[in-house]
Batch of 3 targets.
Target 1
Amino acid sequence: WWGNYPKYSVSLLKSLFGDKATKENDFGYQWLPKADDGRVYSWLDLFDDMYNGKIKGFFAWGQNPACSGANADKNRKALAKLDWLVNVNIFPNETGWFWKGPGMDPKKIKTEVFFLPCAVSVEKEGSITNSGRWMQWRYKAADPPGFARADGDIIIELMQKVKYFYRKDKEAVFPEPILNLKWDYTTNWKYDPHKVAKEINGYFQRDVVVKGKSFKKGDLVPSFAYLQDDGSTSSGNWLYCNSYTNKGNMSARRKREKEGIGLNSEWAWCWPVNRRILYNRASVDKYGKPWNPERAVIRWDPNAKGGKGGWIGDVPDGGWPPMLKADGSLNPKTKYPFIMKPQGHAHIFGPGRADGPFPEHYEPIEGPVDKNPFSSQITNPTAPLYHTDLDIYCRCDPKYPIVATTYRVSEHWQTGILTRWLPWLLEAQPQLFVEMSKELAALKDIRNGERVIVESPRGQVEAVAIVTNRFRPFKVLGKVIHQVGLPWHYGWIYPKDGGDSANLLTPSTGDPNTRIPETKAFMVNVRKK
């Protein structure tokens, strides 16, 4: 399937640069920033570079890395090494106000901080895509208060201003990516989310005939199957091609589910091409009959399309016929269902992984044991480690004998920016707590409701002890291990007695492939305040 990559990439460049992207200039490819060989641009690496003074400016757009990122104290001190920080959010937060935080001296911080108040979700129109790949359109219910503006309005005006300064400065360095950028997403001088949604879907750039169908310049591309590599099509994201077509905004559909199995095919839209189940042809046998007829996602109907045959149900992951014909002979026009894999088959291995193609159990970077009971290698040899003065790791350290984990509670969302300021939610979960077993509480002489200090090599937090049966000691290699758990929704800004982020305790390390931080297992100690 990736043989279509040139069509997707050229269409993306046309979406970015419009008429300025031509075949003669490689459709503006040279205007794009390039990743350096051997570099990783993950969250952990970003803040490591920031702490080492390699990053000058940072947009914290709807983010609160002073609380959300692993090793939060390092993140906060990294922010102090920036020249400028733009914080776009709805409430005061630990990132935008880091310079006033614990251990900070504003007189010694050079970072110039800009706070831009923005609209919440019900104060702006646009789409949201969930982890199930559904793109759902939201409508505006109210105007944002005061000087708050929708993110789109902020971005539009910011880029227009950048373009203005580049046009004005005749000595501007490498102006082409800025001045040639297509930037026509306004209606009556205001940000128009429908124009952005259409741009992401893609347009035909001239009158063309594709797959026997005629299209006019300005028509919306009906599917990524019609994208071309000759500059005749644009698409901001090929996966979203088909989301906004000449028929209308597919993500705004609101028809009730009719299949009876939860497909909801006409409620909103699902990337790609409204396919609700990826690789859905794997749910049928070689004749196209569902393995489970009572819950059929898709099935082959030989009488469909005037007797030519066709798939009924979900949008097929490729419209080819079943593997076998009705008489049992091989169908030469078919393809295997896993079309994104070179072999067309599902994998039980993952080629290209940094730590090898097969699953392997490793202990976390921090832990209470010095031996992996499963194999001779205790930790992942390719796990990212960092080497600043604030990157401290410990294993089997008697100062930190307790395993800790972090998690969420139902009443709060992420670092709590949205929920700590809502009195009814804050009343339900007002402050940082640490859960521990009755056995650990007895060992530490801690009573339920008492304030305690939880500390790791990287920092400490004050929390309310919750003594519970939810946590119990367990044995590893004959050794009794205790565990505690803390939510990470809090910060020093508000409420004043709510405690700080549990990520002050967590280490800067993670998965070697995704760089997802390893905040679910690390070592701490707990003591009475």
Target 2
Amino acid sequence: MKILFLQDDFPPQSFGGAGISTYDLAHGMKKAGHEIFVVTTCRKESDAGELDYQGLKVFRIVNNYSGRWRAYLSLYNRKSNYQLEELLKKIKPDVVHANNIHFYLSYHSLKVSKRYAKVVVITLRDAMAFSFGKLQTIKYLEDFNCRITWLDSLKQARKRWNPFRNFFIKRYLGYTDKIFAVSNALVGALEQNGIKNAKAIHTGIDVDLWHTNEDEIDRFKEQFNLKDKKVILFGGRLSGAKGGTKALEAMLEIVKYIPDAVLLVVGKVDEYAHEMKIVANKLGIGDKLVFTGWTDREQTKHALASSDIVLVPSICFDAFPRTVLEAMASGKPVIGTRYGGASEIIVDGVTGYIVNPLSSKEIANKTLILLKDSKKAEEFGQAGYERIKNNFNLENMVREYIAAYETLLKKKE
């Protein structure tokens, strides 16, 4: 099959979760013998054009605009869609598989793709198809009600509100032959917002990529002064919605019982990272934070391997947190959020714990259980590794998508 992937940001320009997941899927499809193309975007004219990235044919379309126009240009971006159409005419793919297109490529790319591909599908990886930002309404946090009203949308977008945004997204999704979602939780949230018949295919990863050796771990620990410390890792795109403040509040309790515990913050040192430093200093635990700055995939692997526990306390709908997959593939116990799809990966009390991230006390208590009982932590980590290896591996995901493509193509014959 000739398969073309659409993804706003893609390696090596960007190593965000959606881009990495799309790369893994595309690479897995290539290994399975299919002809693969990727259309992505870049911000500078000098970066635009065709390149070969680790055996994948990648086409970069230059596109950049102020985020204030996202509610409109994420629906229809004329500049991106014109260039995409030219590529589709040339490639003539059997399948177009869209991923995150809700910023630069725009949802209109689904309509354009329908003209030239036999089958068009999309994988939704977050709540953006119905929510302008992170889904963290009070009714969701209290009752798991994902339904977004026009008033919720107005509160999220404020001056950038487009009252027709969700209507047009549903219209554009109608051009797909199938909608996939990365978790059952996301399927349910989509249904609550009128997006029906989505199918869950869980993200899978290559567990072999997360193996490391003692020398690499020692070097990383020495670089960040982590030797003889109990290391709790908190990482990803740092934000309050990801539970950063609650992680700090939990640390205040943890260090009372385990003074050598540190919070290893893995991610770009941006405005929110500085806010974390200020809060930590006010709490009197500023010396318990270690910031790595931005890390590539290899450095992230070393950070995970150097940790004792991984904390993913998102206070928002986190559809299927990749950090959980990577941590468990690294053999680490994970304390994850009850919001979103983390509970589909973590087996509570077996591979880690599912907590209410609004309760810093609960986060602290579960963390302390594992820090005080290294045998239990090791057992959880091994069980987590086996779970990822057997249930959330890349090969399974690739097979599921290929089977779906083939079924859809047969219907077109």
Target 3
Amino acid sequence: MQGEHPGSDAPGFDDPDLGESVEAMDVATLDRLPFGAVRLDAAGRVERFNATEAAQSGYGSRPTLGLDFFTGIAPCMNQPDFRGRLESGLASGRLNLRFGWTGDFSDANRALDIRVLGRAGGGCWLFIRRPG
């Protein structure tokens, strides 16, 4: 599904080619997505963290690149139901997950729609949409 905003040709959250599309994006284009996008390497360190995620999560302008996502940025997601799913998918070589999650950096009760897609070179993309 293209463009979650009228007139946009950016990929939508549900786009089947979302992972491939964001790999080719420059930082400015990635920052304009209407949902959070975070790229992790195979060890879980942040390689990209878009401005939308920084703003919507409440994380703000704190440093992100090179940090362990689960211990340095989002310890609320360092749980078997989140990190465990991601690590199992990475180990199997078939990482394509979608699930609901409750808890955000600034609001522990916020509902999130999570999509995780593996990367050809290892690691993954986390896409985070905040309904409403």
